[in-house]
Design goal:
The protein is 8% helix and 16% strand. It has one helix and three strands; from the N terminus they run ββαβ. A three-stranded antiparallel sheet has the order 2-1-3, with no helix packed on it.
Length: 119
């Protein structure tokens, strides 16, 4: 059931633990562009993250009616109180198939501020 007047995509948040998420197949609704099967994200403790600009706009303007998400999608997530550390190969510091996305934060460019601080 869809709750009325809610923000449906995964919300912007910070975790008190480290979060490692990977996509095995399908499409992740919070980042439909650029997060492909075989990809993964790592958000260390208290690192802010959430849906990209397109997912935010789509989720904010969609009709308030029930719909399915994640059809034929398989993803996983590990959370830990420990900090994860990337290998030098993953970071591109040693020879190997580094696939570090150096433009990851660009997916939030263009988001309008919807926060009005109290007076």
């Amino acid at each position: 059931v869809t709750a009325e007047h809610t923000f449906r995509p995964p919300y912007y948040h910070r975790n008190c633990m480290s979060e490692f998420m990977g996509l095995i197949r399908g499409q992740y609704e919070a980042k439909e562009e650029g997060f492909c099967p075989g990809g993964a994200t790592l958000h260390s403790c208290m690192t802010p993250h959430g849906p990209d600009r397109l997912a935010f706009e789509k989720g904010s303007s969609a009709p308030m009616e029930p719909f399915r998400i994640g059809e034929s999608t398989m993803a996983f997530m590990f959370e830990s109180t420990f900090l994860f550390r990337c290998s030098p190969v993953a970071l591109g510091r040693l020879p190997g198939p580094a696939q570090l996305d150096t433009t990851y934060s660009a997916c939030w460019q263009g988001l309008d501020s919807n926060f009005t601080p109290p007076e």
